TrEMBL record:
Swiss-Prot/TrEMBL catalytic activity: a 1,2-diacyl-sn-glycero-3-phosphate + CTP + H(+) = a CDP-1,2-diacyl-sn-glycerol + diphosphate
Organism: Mycoplasmopsis agalactiae (Mycoplasma agalactiae)
Keyword Transit peptide found: no
Enzyme Commission (EC) number: 2.7.7.41
Name by which UniProt lists this protein: Phosphatidate cytidylyltransferase
GO biological process: CDP-diacylglycerol biosynthetic process
Domain of life: Bacteria
Family per record: Belongs to the CDS family.
Gene that specifies this protein: cdsA
TM annotation in the entry: 12-31, 37-55, 62-80, 106-126, 138-160, 166-190, 211-231, 237-258, 286-303
Amino acid sequence: MKILKERVLPAVVGVLIIASAIIPFAIFGASHYEARIAAYIMATAAVFILSFEILNAFGVKLVFRIFVSMLAALMTFMPIDTAETLLKPGSFDRTQLLILIKNSVFNWQSLLIISVIALIFVLIELQSRTNMTAGDRFLRFVHIWFSFFYVINSIIFLLLATFRDWMIVLFILLAPSLADIGGFFGGKFFGKKWIKASFAPNISPKKTWEGFIVGVIACWIFAAGMIFGLGLMENKVIPQTFVFSITPFASVAGDLYFSYLKRLNATKDYSKILLGHGGLMDRHDSISFVGTLVAMVYFFISVK
């Protein structure tokens, strides 16, 4: 029952909540600007909360957390011309939406604002943390930059992809869960039976190599069914094969990276918003890496 409560039930509830939000946007988003406005509002709120939680883990004071998170939330509307196009009345065909996606992910405006946010963070810590070396400050600048990079680009891609192909959105959201659940059960039933060394002892001591292997296999099985069975990635073989191969490892990398940031800042959870299950960032860690991976692939997919 404990396993059911801690792993399976939250995943099922999360899927139902996500599906209830995504499906209406997917159905009406391309043809109804009201649905696109609602989706933008939800994405903006998600960016604000995730940014707030990251800064909370880094020990930033409340007033600065709110200000920087609001600045980050504005990136949902970058580039501005894409937001203006999508938020005005009218409908879009699939080719137009793919072009908008390619023009929006990793846009220079967002990269500039992420750099400004990281610089603001350093300036804040110059006042609040006076006993830190220049090397440590630079390292924390890099971590803030990359954490916001993964969060912002994954949310922007999920937002725009919802209007074009909601199945790719479900894939990005569900694949990390399969890797996580597979890793949990693999570690529980087979952990350290064949490989005694821990998988990541300095970041997540409870993770085992057996759990990692089972999680990768579970994710591969799920990814094969969705990517090849449903023709995701615009039904192009090379992008499909690449995403299929890398997704489990991107999921684990996201989990480990954001767990490392928590250990770096001596905190257990990014927040308590999920009542015993941590914060949204504790759930979005792997998703941010997988979403950014898929966004990178879409960036290079040719438009017909």
